Amino acid sequence: MRWMAMAAGVMVLAGAGMRMEAQAAAPAKASPNSAKPAPMMVTTGSPTAAKDRPVLPEAFAGWVATDKPKVLTDAAELDSANAAALKEYGNQGGIVASYKRSDETLTVKALSFQDVSGAYGAYSFYRQNGWPKADIGTGGTSDKNRVLFWKGSTVVDATFSKVGPMSASELRDLAKDLPMPQGNRALPPPILAMLPQDALDKQTTHFAQGPSGYAGSGGVLPPELVGFDRDAETVTANYSLTSGPAVLTLIDYPTPQIAEAQYKKIHDYIKTGSGAQPAFPKPLQDSDQASLEVLRSGPIVALVSGDAIPDESHKLLAQVHYSAELTQMTQGKDNEIVKTGQFLMGVAMLVIIGCSAAVLLGFFLGGGRALYRVARGRPVSSVYEVEFIRLHLED
Question: Which portions of the sequence form the region Disordered (predicted)?
């Protein structure tokens, strides 16, 4: 009976495995009451990164595309004047679409980047100081009829023929469908966390990953002095101090050793003054020379410039401090760890169900046999029917 129970358990396990394989292999059948297919979306990027591609619908918030959205793969086609900067930020092409509603028009350009850092950098490159903040996507701004915002690894540049009170709400409707990257590609630039927050004007923050982006966003130092060929990243921000405006530049290098070497070059360049080669860029020329100061903290080199008095400039620079921290990368719902856990849970549930079925089958089969023997007037178990041959050797 034990062998019969084990065989029954194996049959149950095999049947359950066949049903699971059949369900996995069978295509999903459409329900008669299923929803109608969504409007067609146009995407960019490689097939392996479909979920990270920017999308532009053919219609949203009353706007209807006049033509099919155009997919562009070259940064020069998206913005020929700033193609070099876009490539530094990791541009992967984009989509351009024109929309119409009544007698109004709207042009939308969606630029795709490799990660969140590149998207934020491109957004900060296009955003000019003084543009007001707009609550769209992760961050937005506007200048008359032009609205600029970013979300995930996508930057959207929209130009209205006429801006209305609902324009921002309409773009928020567009932003909600933009994809979000996963893993380390979803992390913002770590150097942003190094900026002191007191008196910071957040609408003046510019992040650069190359010389074109740095120079185009108003960098203070000559690009060749920064060391972008050594994988440097920079962030520049304005501060409204009591004695006057100040500009803080942070440069992040891969190692403290590289930072030390670049710090000496920048320090000597600043101390040389008007006779420095190359010549001081205009931001340095317009600064109070007594307030210029350079500091290194770990792999970070910081420079303060502007018109603030030396004491306040020094206090601002003193707030820059590097501390190594571990950052937990967010994991998407479809990552390999989650898939492995789900598979193991499925195997465990299958084993539990199979063992339970085997126990139940053994109980019912064994119990039925016992009842049958009792009904025939025999012992419950055949163990009690064993006959022994007794030899009366005492005689």
Answer: 28-49
